[in-house]
Design goal:
This protein has 533 residues and is an alpha/beta fold. Helix content is 32%, strand content 19%. The strands form seven sheets. It has a five-stranded parallel β-sheet, covered by helices on one side. A hairpin with a 5-residue loop joins strand 9 and strand 10. Helix 3 packs across helix 11 and helix 12 runs antiparallel to helix 13. The longest helix has 22 residues. The protein starts with a strand and ends in a 17-residue tail after the last helix. The relative contact order is 0.16. The C terminus is likely disordered. The chain binds succinic acid (SIN). Succinic acid binds next to helix 6.
Length: 533
């Protein structure tokens, strides 16, 4: 078989697994804009869901995933996720990930909307970090993988037939270079930095999704952004408080110290995330914007004084660092932007609509999460679909585009108007939080979209390039949100509060992007006068 050069963008679980697997057959270059170990994966707490116990079943994991996805899941992708998940977890264990054990067996955790406690965790609440470090170690020891850290992936390179043949990068010395590639795999994660409050690290700026958009890839279901119900909030900063804390029995209290979630959903604090996040947001509105309280003191009463520090060491340290003692007092929490269900449209092998371009993990939209993701299915998704993408490439199969794309995508303009005003990242994030957050409305969305379409980002630092990516993605998210005149899963429109009976995915692609994004040699498209925002 011909040995190819495959470029992977991103170093979370999806990128690292893809690199390890693809390097069995091809030469791999892995590009990451920070250190190899920095990614969204590293900060994942709760765990990874998979059917690993004899009294659980794949059918129940599938049913839970479909139910939470609010009728919009791709059933084939869900079947793949849940049925292949256990084998992939065993691969992780072979690579060296040490999941926590109890009585000599894998420890089980419960999280919201799971009908069975099937969540594996490591280091208590340091699951993502444990996985990331084991995979980084494996990648650093592997043959055929070249790692380029502190290297920013700027744009995809396409040949005259519209096939991906390389990647434009900015190296650590700020030189712009083009890398030739037989295929590019986007594993660049999500874009929590779209919002003022997020659980995501600063690297989550949607660079891969924006590159794919500019290359005219089809994106899907971009309106569906998940808000995690519980982020510790203090002085405008947020820190994720894992779903697993509520899974173990912590409850939410209003400003008067009373539980409120049981009036909203029979599953109370363990209802799907969209329901709990909306319930909290409404409760906060009723109490003048003050955060609700998460009471974990019950867990201490039940399990002993050291329980929180032992089961949730990362959260315990973060809470105490902020001067709080959650073993004695409830702590203030609010929802925060967490995970993008939408992304670059792919099939179950990671193929996008552009030949030789693959996408896996949060940057992709296989449709596996539908309109709302089940807790702890994201690490599993990255693992399963990275492995499948690698299998596709290693079998020597050709990627000639996405078969079966019969729907007509909605075009989104990318070019800035001549009168566009400068926008900075905080203004953009505030606009997104207010207009495209947990509850939305057509009038507010339209006003915000008009403002975005009359905005541009000035400057060419890496931070500016990231903000430009965020601006383009914000337009796409709002366009999709306006087009979906219904409330479903993570999208709640107060002008369309009901679920529509006509079920469809939203598909978008960039209009005029070829004109805007085809710079001459050595010309930086982001500073050229004809450049889009
Ligand atoms: C959490 O620990 O609550 C986050 C896990 C997830 O996003 O699924």
């Amino acid at each position: 078989m011909i040995r190819k050069h495959i470029v992977i963008v991103g170093s979370g679980i999806a990128g690292l697994i893809a690199a390890l697997e693809i390097a069995r057959q091809h030469d791999v270059t892995l590009v990451t804009k920070s250190e190899l170990a920095e990614s969204n994966t590293r900060w994942a707490q709760g765990g990874i869901a998979a059917v690993m116990f004899p009294d659980d079943s794949v059918a129940e994991h599938i049913a839970d995933t479909l139910r939470v996805g609010a009728g919009l899941c791709n059933a084939e992708a869900v079947e793949v996720l849940c049925s292949e998940g256990p084998a992939r977890i065993r691969d992780l264990i072979r690579i060296g990930v040490q999941f926590d054990q109890r009585n000599g067996e894998l420890a089980k955790g419960l999280e919201a909307a799971h009908s069975y406690p099937r969540i594996l965790h490591a280091g208590g609440d340091a699951t993502g970090l444990s996985i990331e470090l084991a995979l980084v170690h494996a990648v650093r020891s592997a043959k055929n993988i070249t790692v380029l850290e502190h290297t920013f992936a700027n744009d995809l390179r396409l040949d005259a037939q519209g096939r991906v043949n390389g990647l434009e990068i900015i190296d650590p010395q700020r030189n712009e270079r083009t890398m030739r590639a037989n295929a590019v795999v986007l594993a660049s994660g999500g874009a929590g930095q779209l919002y003022l409050h997020t659980t995501n690290p600063s690297v989550a700026t949607g660079d891969g999704t924006a590159m794919a958009l500019r290359a005219s890839a089809v994106l899907a279901d971009m309106e569906f952004y998940q808000f995690h119900p519980t982020a510790l909030t203090m002085d405008g900063n947020t820190f994720l408080i894992s779903e697993a804390v509520r899974g173990d029995g912590a409850v939410l209290l209003d400003a008067n110290g009373r539980r409120f979630m049981q009036h909203i959903d029979p599953a109370a604090e363990l209802a799907p995330r969209d329901i709990v996040a909306r319930g909290i947001a409404r409760q906060m509105a009723m109490q003048g914007g003050a955060p609700v309280m998460l009471d974990a003191t019950l867990l201490v009463a039940k399990n002993g004084a050291d329980f929180l520090a032992q089961r949730f060491p990362t959260i315990d340290a973060a809470v105490r660092h902020r001067g709080l003692d959650w073993s004695r007092d409830p702590i203030p929490v609010t929802p925060a932007a967490h995970y993008w269900m939408g992304g670059v449209r792919t099939d179950i092998w990671g193929r996008t609509s552009i030949p030789n371009l693959f996408a896996i993990g949060e940057v992709a939209c296989t449709g596996v999460h539908g309109a709302n993701r089940l807790a702890s299915n994201s690490l599993l998704e990255s693992l399963v679909f990275a492995w499948r993408c690698a299998a596709f490439l290693n079998e020597g199969r050709e990627h000639d585009g996405l078969p079966g794309l019969t729907e007509r995508p909605l075009p989104v303009p990318l070019e800035a108007t001549p009168t566009a005003q400068r926008i900075d990242r905080t203004t953009l994030q505030t606009l997104m939080w207010n207009a495209a957050g947990i509850e939305r409305n057509g009038v507010t969305l339209q006003q915000a979209l008009s403002q975005l379409q009359n905005s541009r980002v000035l400057g060419a630092s890496i931070a500016d390039l990231e903000t430009r990516n965020l601006l383009q993605l914000a337009s796409v998210l709002m366009t999709a949100s306006l087009a979906r005149e219904e409330s479903r899963g993570a999208q709640y429109r107060d002008d369309y509060p009901e679920r529509s009976t006509s079920l469809q995915h939203s598909l978008l692609y960039a209009k005029n992007s070829e004109v805007s994004w085809s710079p001459g040699p050595n010309q930086n498209p982001l500073t050229a006068s004809s450049s889009p925002r």
